[in-house]
Amino acid sequence: MVVQPNQAKRLNNSEPWQDPKVKPYVYIKNLTKKFGEKTTVNDVSLSIYKGELFSLLGHSGCGKTTLLRMLAGFESPTSGKIFIDGMDMTNTPAYKRPVSMVFQSYALFPHMTVEQNVAFGLIQEGMNKNEIRERVNAYLKLVQMSGYEHRKPHQLSGGERQRIALARSLVKQPKLVLLDEPLAALDKKLREKTQLELVNIQEKVGITFIMVSHDQEEAMTMSTRIGVMSAGRILQVGSPTEVYEYPNSKYVADFIGSVNLFEGLIIEEHSDHVIVKSTMLEKNLYVTHSASAPVGAQTNVAIRPEKIMLTTEEPSGEYNWTSGIVQDIAYLGDVSIYYVKLKSGAIVLATTANLVRFSERPIQWDDKVFLYWKPESGIVLTM
């Protein structure tokens, strides 16, 4: 059998990037790409481990697709090195690299059948016809497209074309699969379903995937780790939980999900917490998660909307609360987002689960409310 199910089960609690004895499977060293005077990828170094589904996440123009194209061999680096499974691939042409790529447009041959599209790379390599047939059938089964062998791409839905493009990439059994916005053309419901299917397929074949995306939710759902890019640089690498809960900069905190940022000054520093004074709030902030910063340092405290609680009664504590007027409510079905205007004029977002019907809720538009949060809810950012 060509495909070995559960060959590389999802990394789960195993974190090879934390073990200095484990060597990276894909190693990018000081990679730079310039187009004329413009630097698109700027001195990027990155280690990706075998069996990962690693996502490069960032706004359009941040350099993530150029980085992916250099891994594929479609672009040549201005400087730096690319290693795959210990081998220097920097100057190796694309057709000689153990790499397959799934494009955003899928790039299927319109005049070929599904079977011919998937088999194309194997035919180019001169593989035996019987082995081609066996391998194509195995990978069509893997992507749940058995029975579609004789259809043409125009007879398939967007989700079906995406699966065929994936099967075509996997059938050559590469060491690395690159995905450039693979789900961008799908509608929301189909995209959510396909995300999980793609993760399951990646687990079964055990091949390392590197995916480019601008969709934060997609990257958070699918990835073992995420690299957040901006202006050609990697700003932070970590698991979805690490990047969301412990952003290392104001940019990352603001880019990943929604966040409230309170500018302030550190007025007390202790071994387990800091006290931050912000003119945006009525009370000082008591923060247990702190970047290293001295008393007097300017900082931002980041607090996610779901960690801020609402009440109509004034809290009794000395820290971590303020008051305001409900200016707007965004009802999203399972949750509602309250936009609360503070005395300082700042707008604070607070997300609450809709445990009761909207008409039964005690807090509505124009109500005066108090917002409060736990000491561990905030993150001090010095960048």
Strand fraction equals 25-35%
Structural domain count: 2
Radius of gyration, whole Å:
25 Å
CATH superfamily of the largest domain: P-loop containing nucleotide triphosphate hydrolases
Query: Which architecture of the largest domain does the CATH hierarchy give at level 2?
Result: 3-Layer(aba) Sandwich
Largest sheet: 6 strands, mixed
Strand order of the largest sheet: 6-7-8-3-9-10
Counting DSSP H or I runs of 4 or more residues, the number of helices is: 8
Summarize the structure in words:
There is one protein chain. This protein has a six-stranded mixed β-sheet, sandwiched between helices. The protein has a five-stranded antiparallel β-sheet with strand order 13-12-11-14-20. It is globular and about 75 Å long. It has two domains: 16-245, 3-Layer(aba) Sandwich (Rossmann fold), CATH 3.40.50.300; 258-381, OB fold (Dihydrolipoamide Acetyltransferase, E2P) (Beta Barrel), CATH 2.40.50. The model is unreliable at 1-13 (pLDDT under 50). It has 383 residues and is of the alpha+beta class. α2 packs across α3, α2 (114-124) runs parallel beside α4 (158-170) and α3 (129-142) packs across α4. The chain starts with 25 loop residues before the first strand and ends with a strand. The chain is 22% helix and 32% strand.
